[in-house]
Amino acid sequence: MMTSSLLPSLGYELAVLARKYGVPGAQLAIHHDGRTVTTDMGELAYGTGQPVTADTAFAIGSITKTFTATTAMVLVADGDIDLDDPVGEYLPGLEDLGGEATLRHLLSHTSGLADPDPDEAPDGFPQRHIKEYCRRHSLVLRPGAGFSYSNLGYVLVGRIIEAVTGMSWREAVESIVLRPLGIRPAFIVGPEPRTSTRPLAAGHSVNVRLGRTRPARPSLPPTYAAAGALAVSAADLAVLGQVLGDLGMPGPLPPAHAERMRTPVSGAHPFGLADGWGLGLAVYREDDATWVGHDGNIDGASCYLRVDPVAGWVVALTTNANSGAGLWREVMSTLDAAGVPIAAARRRTPLRIPTAPPTGCAGRYVNGDVEHVVVEKRDGNVYLANGDHLEPLTFYDHLTFTVHDPATGREVLGGRFLRNPGTAQIDALQMGGRLARRHAGAARTDSREGIA
């Protein structure tokens, strides 16, 4: 089936679904069999009437990490960096982490770094902020021991790129990856601000149930630019997807190194996010199909990239609303029904029959400056504190649990508790791919979500 035959119906479906989820503007790009088709709809900013076009740039959040990882892997291919050298060889003064973690660990989120609140990062030179979380006692895992999603890890990748190239991260990603691929980016934050000549979609916070749409400006400190500062179009994401999938797009990344990025790293088990993790790419598996990609969620925007390197598909969606996540779920279902085999390119965590709540869960679980407070009541039920409210948890096999989503009225995957293999005691909580270690002492704050 030719991708061009999908375009008329998909353009209509995208507009219908966007209205359903209150998304002001969106772009969809599909590549297959050597051809890319795109469709776009809506407004740059709600109520302005300024149309989204194929050239509009959307804040892509954490998909920026895939561009950063691609830049690093070009330097690996050129022999400028070794994946398994300690990061301290490139960034002196990183305390304990410098001699133990490698670029491979950073790219695959297996460095053990916490994921501190970016709003706590200084706007200037980040060395003190970085060193604070690179000490052994601040790690949530020893490097290489497991998966815990960390934006700070990609701050370090950006710093390594700068140390090796002598350029800023922004200059390096532009000159090494973006310009060779014909991508003209915008940046939502960063030093040396430049005015982009392409239109930039504004972000929105949408409450579908209330029918309310408000402006939402992406919040990201300049020090975190390598983790989430890029803005590009869905067509641009499709170009990168072709490079990562080795689908005939000439570019600076050798095919062998694109394959290394797609290969799952041993020990990287991103529960709730994907089935595995490579070097800057999530891995999704179902039956014989394997897709790779990344999600990008930041204040006011939700964007997605998926690549099937075997069957030759690339799918990219950009939206300028937090409610774009619901749009993406339905777009995948619509594409699958239309013959694009993308059903495997979503995270799946099978939940069976609910089980009795386990004992021994109560306590404080800490990742950087983020804290989750878990409470056990006399009725035997387990709750997650959310402000003054206690959210009941429904448990399933392997200490996994769901929480009630008031927006949809459904039970959604919340996370899982983990036992210490030596003591069999519950000593960790994994939510949103981030691992939080159990700590003694009084509770400080409530749980929150980070950039993803």
Automatic annotation (TrEMBL):
* Database matches in Pfam families: Beta-lactamase
Q: Which domain of life is it from?
A: Bacteria
Q: Do you know which Gene3D superfamilies this protein is assigned to? A: DD-peptidase/beta-lactamase superfamily
Annotated ranges, domain Beta-lactamase-related: 19-325
Q: Which InterPro entries match?
A: AmpC-like, Beta-lactam-related, Beta-lactam/transpept-like
Listed name of the protein: Beta-lactamase family protein
- This protein's species is Planosporangium thailandense
**What does the record give as the organism's lineage?**
Bacteria, Bacillati, Actinomycetota, Actinomycetes, Micromonosporales
